[in-house]
Amino acid sequence: PFVGLFIARVSRGRTVREFVLGTVAAPTIAAFAWFSVFGGTALHMEIMQHVPIADAVKTDVSTALFAVFDRLPLGTLMSGIATVLVVVFFVTSGDSAVLVLGMMSTGGNENPSARVKIAWGLLISGIATSLLLAGGLKSVQTATIVFALPFIGVIVLMAIALWRGLREDHEEERRRERALRRRLREFVDHTPPPDRGTP
Prior knowledge:
Layout lengths: L1 H9 L5 H32 L5 H7 L4 H7 L4 H31 L8 H35 L2 H40 L9
Helix pairs in contact: 1-5, 4-5, 5-6
């Protein structure tokens, strides 16, 4: 819901094609390229070069990527870039969540006050810190799965509603086009020919 409301807010004025390309196609292609390149590299290191990448994953999956980078040229630079990307991901995700929560808690106000956003930011940070201190990454993953599971049905219903909405919109557009053509034909049929005068 948070991501959906945030994307809906920033996508106002975009066409459906632009929306799908920006939120579905582009992230899918980027994720496919990322996992293909670095996942394939990790498998090649494990199978062909006998580098213990699997052991690094078993030890701490959150640092396995950096274990791969350590074996590559310019590994320090790549680790720095990956760290920056992770920070940007968390900052943008947190910012969108705070913005949407602020909008929902202020009755749909698209620009909630800084005080409201700070309050939600502190609350989210406190919950995340508590989960990490309670059980580390596993507790966060478990909480994500538990809270996300009920939304599977909601997402399916949303997909059905989107399909029906697009179909109804297309049919309405075709009806308007047919009505416009009919009015144009009636206008042309009832318009007298111009008087060209006598030769």
